[in-house]
Amino acid sequence: MINNTVDDNGHAQAQIPDQQQQHHCHFQQKPIPKCLPKRIILVRHGESEGNRDDAMYTVMPDYRIPLTPKGIGQAKEAGSRIFDVVSDNGTSDKWRVYFYVSPYVRTRSTLREIGRAFTRRRVLGVREECRIREQDFGNFQVAERMKVIKETRERFGRFFYRFPEGESAADVYDRVSSFLESLWRDIDMNRLHHDPNDDLNLVIISHGLASRVFLMKWFKWTVEQFEYLNNLGNSEFRVIQLGLGGEYSLAVHHTEEEMLEWGLSPEMISDQKCRAHANRSSWNDKCSWYLDAFFDHLANSDDDDYDEVKSNFSD
């Protein structure tokens, strides 16, 4: 059995077990290039009939609710703006896109409108992905009952509160985390059939909550930090872009003012700025403040702060 590993240059390499090496195998597997995406773009669907009128949820299953005419226009405009991002405003020709889409009618329709901005040769492929679907609120939603339930959620906490017969944000986090693992396998094994000479852009068309928990998982945000995040607007998107040092960051493409509007704290924004320039090996050193979210105090030196550390145990 041959085990694949990734070397320091980001290439998958085959490791041949000692038993096979002893038998003098006469083949050598060539390294498979691991081409990291330049961008991962998270898109919320356009305005749906449910966004315009809550009563729609009482007569139609959530997954079947369509876009409004306004939502169709929003999605088409988003396609144009995403094209500008991935093409560097038309100055680059070496790029391709690959789409992942939630199976709901409104996300599929959003994809269709976004796709109008791209020619066939620009699209590497598309995959419907059930794990990035909307949070399950139950089957048909009764308006007055949902109002009471959502008020209860605000008191309980948005992340852990589970809707009766439905899901919590924590449940969505688990399935989005599973999707993220599959996403990396697609990249590692080059299932997207991506030419390393082109910039790879992954566009994930989903829902507000699924996008927020994706960001939470990606950047290792805490539950407390998640609670302060604002939802994406219809057809809004977030660009996670690869920095020069090899870390992904929102700060490569987005401004500090935008991130503040989304509910990121000054510490979270500082983290994004660190990621935009830091390499993977130095990120913990440059952004060590992250530890302070979990510890009251960590000594800087084993020697200098020995007495202080010991005194903490005696208090």
Automatic annotation (TrEMBL):
Biased composition range(s): Low complexity: 11-22
Region (Disordered): 1-29
CDD domains according to UniProt: HP_PGM_like (cd07067)
InterPro entries found in the cross-reference section: His_Pase_superF_clade-1, His_PPase_superfam, PG/BPGM_mutase_AS, PGM-Related
Domain of life: Eukaryota
SUPFAM superfamilies referenced in this protein's UniProt entry, alphabetically: Phosphoglycerate mutase-like
Protein name: Phosphoglycerate mutase-like protein AT74H
